[in-house]
Design a protein that fits this description.
single chain, about 300 residues, Cytidine Deaminase, domain 2, 2 domains, 5-stranded mixed β-sheet, 18 strands
């Protein structure tokens, strides 16, 4: 059996039969790739280093280091972000590295299938991760990160106390073009039509960064990991746009990153609204051309 033809790190070409009322034909279609990534944390003093696998997530390949760091930070496993200045090597304390298909792969937890893609985040000796904050099960679905949580209450425990609420306000007109700008920045979506995206905008509505992934929480982790590597956290002068719905876990990650305004093309959940209100976030849903709903923090949106 011939395997899929990989056309890029996030796209593969697979056979498909296309059908219309009076016609069918065989061809190939571009499909978004979904593969497991094992996140391994290395920490401890020199000579007594510890390696611990902390998660396996199904993701679209690309920006794996940013995904790993964003995940570890938003879970509260990595300490205060001031420990990690931006570095050319792209890792905390100049020590982060990735391995894909080399070295010694882990397993998916069943003892059967090996995981070929592994990213190792190596912390400097003086940094101790808070592994008690790791409340996911070992395997995390790309479609619902919160499903792997032991309890909803555990999500509240990782909110950072060092971020302060910002007085940022914006004109409503800044929000209207954001979905179009995000869509224009989605390169992989253009080819497959099958990815979520998270977009970082400044207060004037300029698109700064777009991250895509088959999992909506992965896309946001990649975005936050990118900001972490660049030394740009907290993002308390920026707007976050989500390409789909706003669920509780995405708002929790936004709180960790310090976003004052979160907008989504789709609807929010009730728990997402509750967390946004408790955290002082302005939450916007159903953002489309010339209209949107405000679910919390309406004071930041000027009409």
């Amino acid at each position: 059996m011939t395997g899929p033809s990989i056309t890029s790190s996030g796209i593969t070409s697979l056979p498909v039969q296309k059908v219309s009322p009076d016609h069918r034909f065989d061809t190939h279609d571009l499909i978004v790739v979904e593969e497991p990534l094992e996140i391994v944390l290395e920490y401890g003093p020199a000579g007594k280093r510890i390696e611990q696998s902390v998660s396996v997530t199904m993701r679209t390949p690309g920006d794996d280091l940013e995904l790993a760091l964003g995940f570890l930070f938003t879970e509260g496993i990595l300490p205060a972000i001031t420990v990690y200045p931006a570095s050319e090597s792209g890792g905390p304390g100049n020590e982060a590295s990735s391995e894909t298909g080399n070295g010694e792969p882990g397993t998916d937890g069943s003892g059967d299938a090996p995981i070929a893609n592994t990213i190792r985040v190596k912390l400097p000796p003086q940094v101790t991760p808070d592994l008690k904050k790791l409340q996911r099960h070992f395997y995390t679905s790309s479609s619902c990160g919160v499903c792997g949580k032991i309890s909803i209450e555990s999500l509240y425990s990782v909110r950072p106390a060092h971020f302060r609420e910002t007085p940022l306000t914006i004109d409503a007109g800044v929000l209207y073009p954001l979905p179009y700008l995000l869509r224009e920045g989605q390169n992989l979506f253009d080819s497959t039509g099958g990815l979520h995206a998270a977009g970082l905008f400044d207060r004037q509505g300029h698109l700064l960064v777009v991250k895509e992934d088959v999992g909506r929480h992965n896309a946001l982790d990649k975005l936050i990991g990118h900001a972490l590597l660049e030394g740009n956290l907290p993002l308390n002068e920026h707007i976050l746009l989500l390409s789909g719905r706003a669920c509780f876990e995405l708002i929790q990650k936004a709180v960790m990153a310090g976003f004052p305004i979160v907008a989504a093309v789709g609807p929010p959940s009730s728990l997402a609204i509750q967390l946004a209100k408790e955290s002082g976030i302005t939450l916007i849903g159903f953002l489309k051309a010339q209209r949107f709903n405000i679910y919390s923090g309406a004071r930041r949106i000027l009409l």
